[in-house]
């Protein structure tokens, strides 16, 4: 059953417009009485039956509200040094499927790509659309926020509000560090927040890692293998899911 995040919910009725209207009518070719899943922006989901399709709206009536949630018990924010090509799009898509709460791209010292402020609005809009579609596909009840790329300084300022702060650092992995991530997950309680920073291709510099540590971050390894910038965030999210959802 296809899921849609819907802005407008009036009582027991959802009104679907825009691209989702197009998807329902032109891509899925759904008709009156077909059922879909509708999710409000505050995370409530309902099985709905399509009552009416017009040129601009799809009106769906609630059949039953769905209990429970598919969200991770903790909120995980992925802070990625801007990588080349479409690697960040991959991280956002797959990271959303794995339960990430938020994505914060930032310009790292070794980021090859140069952020173009003139194209920034369209780029962030595309990233947010990728997150929305991935959230619908994976039956999330929350669409992760994709922030406008920050500097490391702004990232440090934003990190103050998190309960736990980590750096995925390949030098720690080379030294055999394997316990910090596991220890942090063991300490965390449901509802708490974790931000973890990943470098771009080439990794984080020693200066960046030192600055992050000075601001309360702990560096950790992610096992004995050195992971690519687009693979490491997915490893962490998978580890979080295993710890909180499969082991308990």
Short description:
The protein has 248 residues and is an alpha/beta fold. 33% of the residues lie in helices and 25% in strands.
Based on DSSP secondary structure assignment, what is the total number of beta strands? 12
Fraction of residues in helix: 25-40%
Radius of gyration from the alpha-carbon trace, in angstroms? 20 Å
- What structural class results from the helix and strand content? alpha/beta
Number of helices: 8
Strand order, biggest sheet?
1-4-5-6-3-2
Helix and strand run: EEEHEEEEHEHEHEHHEHEH
**Biggest sheet descriptor:** 6 strands, mixed
Chain-averaged pLDDT: 95
Strand content: 15-25%
**Shape, per Cα inertia axes:** elongated
Q: State the low-pLDDT regions, or none.
A: none
What distance lies between the first and last C-alpha atoms, to the nearest angstrom? 28 Å
Overview of the molecule:
With 248 residues, this protein is an alpha/beta fold. Helix content is 33%, strand content 25%. It is built from 8 helices and 12 strands. The strands form 2 sheets. The protein has a 6-stranded mixed β-sheet with strand order 1-4-5-6-3-2. The protein has a 6-stranded parallel β-sheet with strand order 9-8-7-11-10-12, sandwiched between helices. Helix 2 (87-97) runs parallel beside helix 3 (120-137). The longest helix is centred in the middle third of the chain and has 18 residues, at 120-137. The model has no long low-confidence stretch (mean pLDDT 95).
């Amino acid at each position: 059953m296809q899921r849609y995040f819907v802005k407008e919910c009036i009582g027991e009725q959802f009104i679907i417009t825009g691209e989702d209207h197009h998807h329902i009518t032109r891509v899925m070719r759904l008709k009156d009485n077909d059922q879909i899943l509708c999710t409000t922006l505050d995370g409530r989901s309902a099985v709905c039956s399509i009552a009416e399709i017009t040129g601009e709206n799809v009106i769906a009536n609630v059949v039953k509200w769905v209990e429970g949630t598919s969200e991770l018990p903790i909120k995980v924010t992925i802070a990625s040094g801007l990588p080349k090509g479409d690697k960040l799009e991959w991280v956002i898509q797959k990271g959303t499927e794995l339960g990430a709460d938020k994505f914060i791209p930032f310009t790292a010292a070794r980021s090859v790509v140069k952020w173009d402020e003139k194209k920034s609005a369209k780029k962030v809009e595309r990233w947010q659309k990728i997150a929305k579609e991935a959230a619908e596909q994976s039956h999330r009840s929350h669409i992760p926020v994709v922030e406008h790329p920050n500097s490391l300084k702004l990232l440090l300022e934003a990190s103050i509000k998190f309960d736990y702060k980590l750096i995925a650092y390949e030098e720690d992995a080379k030294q055999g560090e394997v316990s910090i991530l596991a220890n942090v997950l063991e300490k965390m309680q449901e509802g708490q927040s974790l931000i973890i920073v990943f470098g771009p291709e080439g990794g984080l510099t020693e200066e960046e890692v030192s600055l992050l540590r000075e601001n309360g971050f702990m560096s950790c390894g992610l096992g004995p293998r050195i992971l690519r910038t687009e693979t490491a965030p997915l490893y962490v999210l998978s580890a979080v899911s295993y710890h909180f959802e499969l082991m308990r």
